[in-house]
Write a structure and sequence with these properties.
Keywords: Amino-acid biosynthesis, Cytoplasm, NADP, Oxidoreductase, Proline biosynthesis. It is built from twelve helices and eight strands. Helix 4 links the parallel strand 4 and strand 5. It folds into two domains: about 170 residues, NAD(P)-binding Rossmann-like Domain (Rossmann fold, 3-Layer(aba) Sandwich); about 80 residues, ProC C-terminal domain-like (ProC C-terminal domain-like fold, Orthogonal Bundle). An eight-stranded mixed sheet has the order 3-2-1-4-5-6-7-8, sandwiched between helices. Helix content is about 55%, strand content about 15%. The protein is α/β, with parallel strands linked by helices and about 280 residues long.
Length: about 280
């Protein structure tokens, strides 16, 4: 890992990435985090042993933090990311790798707000990073070489699977893996509601749905696992599961999922356009 790693903003996703890095062996002494509230800064410093600055207390904390950094992770919401880039631009090392975790903010927009030639990587992580089962898609900017990309990989390697993709596939990734955990939780909600409809107590319904979805996820995470083969193994000919799957097919569940993913990807593209007008 490069010399100093800085998190500008560290919400739940940023903390998941931070936890994965530290678990993979990165020294907390090499990490600096900036957040707005001093209470949050104290919490992060106490929990992880990192240096944490509160921008509400220390003017220029963000610019101060990035001095001498090898990797800078932009962890604020999309609406604030361009202003943050301009705030720290003059303090960045020319070879510092800037990694954005903000959905829908393009490489062109990021590079336009940073010094010419700054290595920039756009990422799309998802929330299972919190439990070391995340998936992260990286897209390299125009000034990124193999060493810069390797540094970006190191940031996420401790938290899940890291993939390299062209930037024009980022919205698709956002619609599938970025938003995808919510789809799985939504399925668990629907299963629990169905269980209650059968007359099961709410607490029993919740356990059945939660543990079933979580257990199936663990099976999918096994090396070489294939969702289609796993489904077929549970679906005996003329059995109960076959009847449920047939009902899902009649209602075009795959089409419903596709339509939802298209809506998510469309909204990501719309956000990119909106940010470009600001």
């Amino acid at each position: 890992m490069m010399k100093k790693i800085v998190f500008l903003g560290c919400g739940s996703m940023g903390e998941a990435i931070l936890s994965g890095m530290l678990a993979a062996g990165v020294s907390p002494q090499s990490v600096v985090v900036t957040v707005r509230r001093p209470e949050r800064a104290n919490e992060l410093a106490s929990r992880h042993g990192v240096t944490a600055l509160a921008s509400n207390e220390e003017a220029g904390a963000n610019a101060q933090a990035v001095v001498g950094a090898g990797v800078v992770i932009l962890g604020v919401k999309p609406v604030g990311i361009m202003e943050l880039c301009r705030e720290v631009a003059s303090s960045l090392e020319s070879e510092a790798v800037v990694i954005s975790v903000a959905a829908a903010v393009s490489l062109e927009q990021l590079e336009g707000a940073l010094p010419a030639g700054q290595p920039v990587v756009r990422s799309m992580p998802n929330t299972p990073l919190k439990v070391g089962r995340g998936v992260v898609a990286l897209s390299a900017g125009s000034s990124v070489d193999e060493h810069h990309l390797a540094a970006a990989h190191e940031v996420f390697d401790g938290s899940g699977v890291v993939l390299d993709i062209p930037e024009d596939q980022q919205n698709a990734v956002s619609a599938i893996s970025g938003s995808g955990p919510a789809y799985a939780f939504y399925l668990a909600e629907a299963m629990a509601a169905a269980a209650e409809n059968f007359g099961l107590a709410p607490e029993i319904a919740q356990i059945l749905a939660r543990e079933t979805v979580a257990g199936a996820g663990i099976m999918l995470a096994e090396p070489g696992a294939n969702a289609t083969l796993l489904r077929r193994a549970v679906t005996s000919p003329n059995g109960t599961t076959e009847q449920a799957i047939a009902s899902f097919d009649r209602d075009n569940l795959p089409g419903i999922v596709l339509t939802g993913a298209q809506a998510a990807a469309g909204r990501a593209a719309q956000i990119t356009e909106e940010l470009g007008r600001n």
